[in-house]
Protein 1
Amino acid sequence: RQGNPVSLQLFMLAVDTLSRLMRRAIDIGILQQLHPRRHMPTISLYADDVMLFCHATPGDVAAVKGILTLFEKVSGLQVNDAKSS
């Protein structure tokens, strides 16, 4: 519940899961690493907003959509399509 002091901690736990899903997708080759020689973030957080980064390829976009669908199912959180591009 938004405003509850525990909400931020629960959100951070959920986003950690999302970050691990993204990392695992890169590790097993479902998602391309952004830069081959240096670790670049695939996820960025600010307050309660999350930004995901991937290559603009049909395969990577489909992979991210699949990861988000899985994340929604396991976390109970929902992606706001109006704020997504």
Note: The helical segments are 5-27, 58-75.
Protein 2
Amino acid sequence: MLPLYTLDAILLDIEMPKMTGIELAQKLVSEGIDVPVIFSTAYPNYALEAFRVQALDYILKPLTPNAVKDLDYRLKKYYGVSNQQRNSNTLQVQLYGNTFVKKDHQSLKWPTRVTEELFYYFLLHKEKAVSKWHIIDDIWPNIAEKRALANLYNTIYRIRQLFSELNVPITIERTTDGYAMHINQTIQFIEKHNTNDLLLESKGYLWAYKLQSI
């Protein structure tokens, strides 16, 4: 539907001819256009429906300077821009043996198991673009294509949302036919303690066995 441009956000008016902004947002999400969506409307009763399609924000008309300023802040937070010190944004990651991700020495609470798995998957591909079809083959190998794609888009959204809430500037970029995660110098890797420890050993991910040489 959209040409492949780098989009920071999509601002949609809910009341549009032929198709509502919410319907358009649903279509964009289903096609993998997964940048933040912001709705504008004169009617507050659309708010709940708007957030069901993963809206970042919901702005009532008329748009005021304060509303635009608040939106700018939310977008910066979404993309990991924070005024906090870099040390507070650092993750400690152990990839071998007893695998973990911690922030401020506390284990991260992942929204779902597959959210955690996809994070490790991107991390081990070292900021390189990975085809969405390869991701699906590795993470959701026995699920129908349409459902697997929906799972992928939703899981990427959850990862972005998690790191936005934690003020950790890790970003996931959409590429021509896939995605790449950029850690932006936010990860401190814990050294391997035992030479016999395997990559992501405590997680048991089948795809990780292909990457044992890392």
Note: The chain has two domains: 10-78, 86-211.
Protein 3
Amino acid sequence: MMFFVVLPRTRLDVPDILRDLLVGTAYFVALLALVRRFGVEVWSLLATSAVASIVIGVSLQPTLASIFGGVALQLDGSVREGDWVRLPDLQEGRVREIRWRHTLIETRNGDTLVLPNAQLLQQQLVVLGRREGQKLQHRMWVPFAVDAHVSPDHVLEVVLEALRSAELENVSTNPRPDCICRGLDGSAQTGAITYAVRYWLLDLGRDDPTSSLVALRIHTALQRAGLALAQPQRRVWTSKESIKAQKAEELDELARRSALLEQVGFFDQLQPQEISALAAKLRPAPFCQGELISRQGAEAHWLYVLVRGTAARRVTLPSGTERHIADLAAPDVFGEFGLLTGAPRRETIVATSRVECFRLDKVDLRALLVDRPALAEELSRKLAANQLRFDETLASMGEGHRDSGEHDQGRLFESIRRFFG
């Protein structure tokens, strides 16, 4: 009654083995009292039992060692049910149950290890994620390598910005993820510098899926920055045929990008040769699901053309609440105000799936505006129409106000001229 009714109400967690031991002791004392009541000499009975216990104990020494090991594990609390542990053979698993003779550990591969308690006490056991006075979280490492010609400072900056721009599921924000350069000793032999991202895992049962998300974030960040993961050094011989094939691939890719820009309404005033010139300057910019593509209030002098995937447009209102405006899909364009006027981002864009974009920078558009100044006026009309729709959206939410498209066009045209000099 005490273990099943009274103690649960006091929220005291009594180990199963301790409970069984106390109940067994109580039964033994009650049995001795009952035997004595029938006139049996208790001390002579205990002496006879002691001799028998010695004989039995010698023959069952391994079993008794495991039993006392289970009692020790339960009483000192060094290993508890639910803990994640690493064994000497580097297997990791979750302690499911500590019994009298053995402990059950469920491994990450879905197996169950049955370890005698005596053996468990004799080997080194690592309890993952448990630190005195700290919340449960375990540090993980995701290694990668980049070509030695790339500055380590640049690699660290690119990766850290991607990791900290938006939260990753099951990754702690305190401490935050970091990226370190692990060493330069292999650069002479392999032509690469090794790095590692270190992060704190919150749910220890989801280690591999979380590391996969972190690796994807690293890979897309490096791709956006024009950096590639290191490859083994090798010599390559080219022939005229391979050079022709490479040029043909480049022309096909340019045609694909040009066809994409022709579908974008924002660029429908451009001539075919202008479309081709811009298509040649587009830079791939992939993003992972949940990654922040653009943040409201940030300054970024480029736009994105969505090629594949979906993204969400969100805006933080003056009241402080964040509202969803619309969903984006190919071939939508966003960031045109920052590209043409240098104005801060008006909204936040978050990837809701794996996203592939092309990025067009201010410097890529400058030559086009210099060659055809009238294009600035045409683009200002596009910006004015977008501004009007944005204001109407805010007005429908009870925020902002409707503005005049003609007034916007004149102001935006002057902003474009000033921004591009």
Note: The CA atoms of residues 316 and 322 lie 4 Å apart.
